[in-house]
Amino acid sequence: MSTPTGFGEPVRDPDQAEARMNAWAQQLADKAARYRDVGERTQALRLTAASPDGAVRVTVRADGALDDLEFGDRARTLPLPDLAQQVMNTVRRAQAQIADQVAAVMTDRLGDEDQQTRSLVLDNLRARFPEPDDEDTAAGAAATNDRQADDPDDEENELW
């Protein structure tokens, strides 16, 4: 008498059972290798964004961490609170690219495999790094463009 194996039809032949187990183990090993590759490619991702006026350029990693920050010449003319707002807005724009880039890596390496896992990963990334609100970006730009001249006697607001 044979018992179901969980792999389809019951197997009576021990050699056939061993072959099925070996095939199943190989499929798992192949899948693990594809996921390792996705992880390595994702860790290597770097996403860059620049402020509209070129004052700020940032690069973030796939985990959202800041990897590089550069200031253009325009940054010297901005009051520090405005520059800080531009840095934050630019970081958010770079981070908002993460989910799309990870999705591209997953599609390239996994094809249509594991849609549920992919959805969980990408939904998590989109929740952590949403598209910046146009209002936030516009408010930062408006603050930069509309700020009154700083008090020339205020030493804390001197240009660097």
Task: For the structure shown, list the relevant keywords.
160 residues; DNA-binding; YbaB/EbfC DNA-binding family protein; 3-stranded antiparallel beta sheet; mainly alpha; Ybab, Chain: A; single chain; DNA binding; 3 strands; YbaB-like_sf; 11% strand
Outline the structure in words.
This protein is mainly α and 160 residues long. It has a single domain (20-145), classed as Nucleoid-associated protein YbaB-like domain (Ybab, Chain: A), CATH 3.30.1310.10. It contains five helices and three strands, in the order H-E-E-E-H-H-H-H. It has helices spanning 14-44, 80-95, 98-110, 115-128, 134-146; strands spanning 46-50, 56-61, 66-71. It has a three-stranded antiparallel beta sheet, with helices on one face. Helix 1 (14-44) runs antiparallel to helix 3 (98-110) and helix 3 runs antiparallel to helix 4 (115-128). The N and C termini lie far apart (85 Å). 17% of the residues are buried.
List the helices and strands and how they pair.
Elements: H1 14-44, E1 46-50, E2 56-61, E3 66-71, H2 80-95, H3 98-110, H4 115-128, H5 134-146
Helix pairs in contact: 1-3, 2-5, 3-4
Count up the helices: 5
How many domains, in number, for the residues? 1
The chain-level mean pLDDT equals 83
CATH class equals Alpha Beta
